[in-house]
Write a structure and sequence with these properties.
The complex is a heterodimer.
Chain A: H1 3-16, H2 18-57, E1 62-67, E2 80-81, H3 82-89, E3 94-102, E4 107-110, E5 113-114, E6 119-123, E7 131-134, E8 142-145, H4 147-162, H5 169-174, H6 182-188, E9 192-198, E10 204-215, E11 225-228, E12 236-239, E13 242-247, E14 249-254, H7 260-272, H8 276-281, E15 287-291, H9 292-335, H10 337-345, H11 350-390, H12 403-429, H13 433-438
Parallel strand pairs in A: 6-11, 8-10
Antiparallel strand pairs in A: 1-14, 1-15, 2-13, 3-6, 3-14, 4-5, 4-9, 7-10, 8-11, 9-10, 12-13
Helix pairs in contact in A: 1-11, 2-9, 2-11, 2-12, 9-11, 9-12, 11-12
Chain B: E1 3-16, E2 19-32, E3 36-40, H1 47-54, E4 62-67, E5 70-71, H2 77-87, E6 88-91, H3 103-114, H4 119-132, H5 148-159, E7 166-170, H6 178-193, E8 197-202, H7 205-208, E9 213-218, E10 221-227
Parallel strand pairs in B: 3-8, 3-9, 6-7, 7-8
Antiparallel strand pairs in B: 1-2, 1-4, 4-5, 9-10
Helix pairs in contact in B: 3-4, 3-5, 4-5, 5-6
Classes of the chains: A alpha+beta, B alpha/beta.
Chain lengths: 440, 228
């Protein structure tokens, strides 16, 4: 019996019991769809994160240094001293060393009203923070504001002008991502903010700041962080009896990519031994020194675990689907016992009978898998929308088509079809024709 | 003409728990090519067992049974299936057509199993066979749309699908009314005239009367043989 003949006959058999075979198919569909949806969604999330990281934040020639912890470079632990920075600058191959830190006791005001969510940071880097509008901070008295803060300022500004409430819906819509709307951005740039902070001698100080830039509106970049020049640095630590300024993170860039690993080793060695940071951190936490490549590897590893975990749950759904198919096939074999007897009497070998039933279960599962792929894509789009709606700050996760996984899904359909058809088909193949012909 | 079926001291014992049932007891006979033989006997006489052995569905407990000079005792399951497919055509009392496929597809089915008839010729051959049993107008009817007699004709056409050496019928008229049954038997006679070997298993003397030779079976033994 050729494959085509088996296919044709099996299809006829499947159509004879449309409802129950459709239900068996649906159970496979649900299993495959959940796998596809989860993989597509987590891949989308991962790609979005990596995209921001590689395009907007980090470059291949960078090495980041920060204390172990969730906020990393932008964390609160300020342990890297100005002396550490000076020492790092001496390592051969280092092109530049920039720092990121927090402003001590910071509070930002617009038109004498506090910007509640804003947090103010200092950075020496001119290009670390990606912008939607304006330029980076170049001098004292300048500030780059986060995208969310820009929205708040925009609303306050326009609400006052138009004499309408700040929570007006039209206004809120208008002020979304103002950095990307040139007329609004132009109006925001040049506005002045007041910064109150504690200087290094613990004096409460105030300064007028002019907005010079708006941070890029992206889901993985803080929208509430604002950046000022290192002149507002106020955190110090007494190390060996001397007060020195301290920062939260360091970013080194190397002149030549080939020297990246050598420089990294030197940086690691420095922090292992004599650094101020080591003295401040002690044994409590690790000092993390990463290249972009390592960060990407780490993120991918984490996502893989995440995907595998969720995927395992989805596989349970697939397993349940398989059991459904096994069940239907067992019923089918039982029902057709007499026919199997007739087929055997008319020359069907065990192999032919086996093939016929395996083909039947495989058709069900492959159709289920194909539908599952389509349904899974639909589901993942919906999942993404749901996640975005639920998780604050998350926006526009791209829908990622992962061709490998679709192929895998269909191959899984075939495998599941064979696996779930195997036992029933074997039952069919070993039917004794004499008994089967007597079977009522 | 040589013997197409040859049984030498065939015994078939069915183990039934602790006791064994002797269904066939030291039976010897042979059927020549082109013969029309009826195997007659009441129920329990062992005629079904004999039919299963001739039909290569079962193997004897002892003795030898050869189909077309092949001793079936030494054949594997697969070889038995092949032999059945190519040399034996079954006609059952209850027709046993596959209900989901039309008459033509039912006749073509054994051809797909045996792979004896080239794929391109199958449809034409099935059509020819259905025409020869008088169903040229019923090719695409489903079994449920056919009368009992018509179903049995489809079954006969199916039995002839692979041009087998032997046509083996088990109470072929048992589910038909007298008139329809008679027509089917006439079809058998015609097939016999055209040189086909026919073996009909029956308990009905009227059916057996159409054969040229009758083997009478009782309690697993051949108790009589008559030529008509």
């Amino acid at each position: 019996m050729s494959f085509r003949e088996a296919l044709k006959l099996s299809w006829t058999n499947i159509r004879a019991h449309k409802l129950r075979n459709a239900l068996a198919m649906l159970s496979v569909t649900i299993g495959i769809a959940s796998v596809i949806a989860i993989v597509t969604m987590t891949t989308g999330l991962q790609d979005a994160l990596l995209d921001t990281l590689t395009k907007d934040l980090l470059r291949a020639n960078m090495i980041t240094v920060n204390v172990e912890g969730s906020a990393g470079l932008f964390g609160t632990a300020q342990v890297f001293s100005s002396r550490d920075v000076e020492q790092l600058k001496r390592i051969s191959g280092v092109k530049s060393v920039d720092v990121i830190g927090r402003v001590r006791g910071d509070a930002l005001y617009f038109k004498n009203r506090r910007l509640l969510d804003a947090s103010t940071r200092i950075t020496t880097s001119k290009d670390l923070i990606p912008l939607d509008a304006g330029r980076s901070v170049q001098a004292k008295g300048e500030i780059v504001i986060g995208a969310r803060i820009a929205e708040v300022i925009c609303r306050r500004m326009l609400a006052e002008e138009r004499q309408i409430p700040e929570n007006d819906e039209v206004l809120q819509e208008e002020c979304k991502s103002p950095g990307t709307k040139p007329p609004l951005a132009q109006r925001l740039l040049g506005q002045s903010l007041k910064l109150r902070f504690l200087s290094s001698d613990s004096q409460l100080s105030e300064d007028e700041l002019r907005i010079v830039g708006i941070v890029k509106d992206s889901q993985f970049i803080s929208g509430t962080a604002c950046y000022v020049s290192p002149d507002y640095q106020g955190f110090t630590e007494a190390i060996d009896g001397i007060e020195v300024p301290v920062y939260a993170g360091i970013i080194l860039s190397v002149a030549d990519l080939n020297q990246l690993s050598a420089v990294k080793e030197a940086v690691e060695e420095y922090f292992q031994n004599s650094s101020d940071a080591r003295k401040l951190v002690g044994e409590e936490k690790k000092i993390e020194i990463n290249t972009l490549e390592e960060i990407i590897t780490e993120i991918k590893k984490n996502f893989l675990q995440f995907t595998a975990f969720l995927g395992a749950i989805a596989l349970v759904a697939l397993l349940v689907g398989m059991i459904g198919v096994v069940n239907i096939m067992l019923i089918t074999v039982k029902e057709r016992t007499r026919e199997i007897g007739v087929m055997k009497a008319t020359g069907a070998t065990r192999g032919a009978v086996l093939k016929l039933f395996l083909t039947e279960s495989t058709i069900i599962c492959v159709l289920g898998a194909v539908l599952g792929v389509l349904f899974g894509m639909f589901l993942s789009v919906w999942f993404i929308k749901l996640t975005v709606a639920l998780a604050q700050g998350l926006r526009e996760i791209p829908f990622v088509f992962v061709p490998d996984w679709y192929l895998i899904a269909v191959l899984t359909g075939i495998a599941v079809g064979i696996a779930s058809g195997l036992y029933p088909a074997w039952q069919a193949a070993r039917v004794n024709p004499i008994e089967a012909l007597r079977y009522e | 003409m040589g013997a197409i079926v040859s049984a030498q001291r065939v015994t078939k014992v069915y183990p039934m728990g602790k006791v064994s049932v002797v269904a066939l007891d030291d039976v010897s006979f042979s059927i020549e090519e082109g013969e029309f033989v009826a195997i007659m006997g009441p129920s329990g006489s062992g005629k079904s067992t004999l039919m299963n052995l001739i039909g290569c569905l079962d193997k004897p407990t002892s003795g030898t049974i050869s189909i077309d000079n092949t001793d079936i005792a030494h054949l594997s399951d697969r070889q038995l299936a092949r032999l059945r497919g190519s040399q034996i055509g079954f006609v059952f009392q209850t027709f046993n057509l596959i209900p989901r496929i039309d008459a033509l597809a039912n006749v073509m089915l054994p051809m797909t199993f045996a792979q004896k008839i080239p794929p391109k010729e199958r449809r034409a051959r099935a059509q020819m066979l259905l025409e020869s049993v008088g169903l040229g107008q019923r090719l695409h009817h489903m079994p449920s749309e056919l009368s009992g007699g018509e179903c049995q004709r489809v079954a006969i056409a199916r039995a002839l699908a692979n041009d087998p050496k032997i046509l083996l019928a088990d109470e072929p008229t048992g589910n038909l009314d007298t008139k329809t049954g008679k027509a089917i038997l006439e079809l058998f006679v015609e097939l016999h005239k055209s040189g086909r070997t026919l073996v009909v298993v029956t308990h009905d003397a009227a059916v057996a009367a159409h054969a040229r030779r009758i083997l009478r079976l009782l309690d697993g033994k051949i108790v009589g043989e008559e030529k008509l």
